[in-house]
């Protein structure tokens, strides 16, 4: 990469770094009896009180704060106080104080769930105390006795429909020298970035245990890479500003861009899409007590909460089978139900990925900055 390209990528890499800064928010003093949908619970409820939970920076934190905390308060009397942190940061903080954890409930992807299980930080989820679990799609139930999946995302290939006339059908389009488009990448610190590298490797003959083909491909495409984002939120900004035309992206971020009038399409890939799944798991020794934590998770699996999860402007894939899907998901991806998503998506082998991921991150950073 020439010096000018290095400056451009380095500058773009800084975008969105502020999203990693933890800023806590709290919903306190809620009138739990106020009608906001679902089952109203008075403040005298057995589980009423404050619950400390984790969220993710950016869109997920907005979802928790603006849409879900009121539902939880209305249904349970629980006042949610949350701090947006990446999954590995959540685990590090709980691991540092396992007897007095800073959170009662975490939100973790499959990969970090595996880490938390190995560190013995989580406790089994009592399904018999969660009525809403009966509505969760069987494909989203835990086979390890933990809480069900809360929501999922798809790793998709997004493209500017005005600058890319032929809809891509493979990740290999990013290697096409005749593609007249600027490429975008995202740091492997994100689940999106790591998942993209595995998907690219698989397309080129590799797999989770061998992503060498993906690193070779990234080196080849670098001359046309106009931005390496620090996180998916920064990637979204680059796409919206027209700095990049083709990139891996969360499916819901692509739909968000479309809602803003950005000409974005989601490629129908021959290999399908990889899924990133997230669950709300209760730590051992929750300060607020097990019952309050379970009530929170159960409320988050309710129809009222899950309708917020899948609805605009968030567009996550819910786990509750009874929730109606918005037309945007059907129009862009042909998804009208949880079953539709599960049928087209595949899970990655995170127990194989995790031990290698730190080395991948270091190598990726060196590659894009060389």
Give a short summary of the structure.
This protein is of the alpha/beta class and 370 residues long.
Description of the molecule:
This protein has 370 residues and is α/β, with parallel strands linked by helices. It contains 13 helices and twelve strands. The strands form three sheets. Strands 4, 5, 8, 9, 10, 11 and 12 form a seven-stranded mixed beta sheet that branches. It has a three-stranded mixed beta sheet with strand order 1-3-2. α2 links the parallel β2 and β3. α2 runs antiparallel to α10 and α5 packs across α6.
Please tag this protein with its features.
370 residues, 3-stranded mixed beta sheet, alpha/beta, 39% helix, 7-stranded mixed beta sheet, globular
- Helix/strand order: HEEHEHEHEEHHEHEHEEHHEHHEH
Provide the gyration radius in Å.
21 Å
Runs with pLDDT <50, length 5+? 1-44
**In total, how many beta strands?**
12
Overall spatial form: globular
Mean pLDDT: 89
Report the sheet with the most strands, covering strand number, pairing sense and barrel closure: 7 strands, mixed
- How many helices? The count is 13
Instruction: Report strand %.
Output: 15-25%
**Cα-to-Cα separation, first versus last residue:** 7 Å
The percentage helix is 25-40%
Class by helix and strand content?
Answer: alpha/beta
Indicate the topology.
Elements (H helix, E strand, L loop, with lengths): L2 H12 L10 E2 L22 E7 L3 H18 L1 E7 L2 H10 L8 E5 H9 L30 E12 L22 E4 L4 H13 L8 H10 L3 E5 L2 H9 L5 E5 H9 L4 E3 L6 E10 L7 H11 L2 H8 L6 E2 L8 H7 L4 H7 E3 L2 H20 L1
Parallel strand pairs: 2-3, 6-7, 10-12
Antiparallel strand pairs: 1-3, 4-10, 5-8, 5-9, 5-10, 5-11
Helix pairs in contact: 2-9, 2-10, 4-13, 5-6
């Amino acid at each position: 990469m020439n010096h000018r390209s290095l400056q451009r990528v380095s500058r773009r890499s800084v975008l969105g770094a502020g999203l990693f800064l933890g800023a806590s928010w709290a919903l306190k003093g809620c009138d739990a009896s106020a009608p906001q949908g679902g089952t109203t619970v008075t403040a005298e409820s057995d589980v009423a009180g404050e619950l400390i939970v984790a969220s993710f920076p950016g869109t997920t934190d907005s979802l928790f704060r603006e849409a879900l905390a009121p539902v939880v308060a209305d249904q349970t009397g629980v006042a949610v106080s949350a701090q947006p942190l990446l999954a590995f940061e959540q685990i590090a903080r709980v691991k540092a104080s396992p007897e007095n954890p800073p959170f009662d409930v975490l939100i973790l992807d499959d990969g970090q769930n595996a880490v938390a299980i190995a560190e013995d930080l989580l406790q089994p989820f009592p399904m018999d105390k969660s009525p809403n679990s009966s509505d969760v799609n069987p494909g989203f139930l835990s086979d390890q006795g933990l809480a069900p999946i809360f929501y999922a995302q798809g790793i998709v290939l997004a493209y500017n429909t005005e600058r890319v006339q032929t809809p891509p059908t493979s990740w290999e389009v990013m290697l096409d020298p005749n593609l007249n488009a600027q490429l975008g990448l995202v740091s492997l610190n994100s689940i999106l970035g790591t998942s993209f590298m595995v998907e690219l490797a698989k397309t080129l003959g590799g797999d989770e245990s061998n992503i060498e083909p993906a690193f070779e491909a990234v080196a080849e495409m670098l001359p046309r890479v106009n931005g390496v984002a620090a996180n998916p939120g920064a990637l979204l900004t680059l796409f919206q500003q027209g700095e990049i035309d083709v990139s891996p992206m969360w499916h819901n971020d692509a739909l968000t861009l479309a809602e803003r009038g950005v000409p974005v399409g989601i490629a129908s890939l021959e290999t399908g899409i990889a899924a990133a799944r997230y669950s709300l798991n209760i730590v051992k020794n929750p300060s607020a007590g097990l019952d309050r934590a379970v009530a929170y998770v159960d409320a988050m699996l309710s129809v009222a909460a899950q309708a917020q999860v899948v609805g605009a402007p968030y567009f996550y894939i819910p786990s509750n089978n009874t929730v109606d899907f918005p037309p945007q998901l059907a129009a862009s991806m042909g998804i009208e139900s949880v079953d539709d998503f599960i049928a087209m998506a595949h899970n990655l082998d995170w127990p194989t990925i995790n031990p290698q991921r730190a080395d991948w991150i270091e190598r990726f950073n060196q590659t894009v900055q060389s």
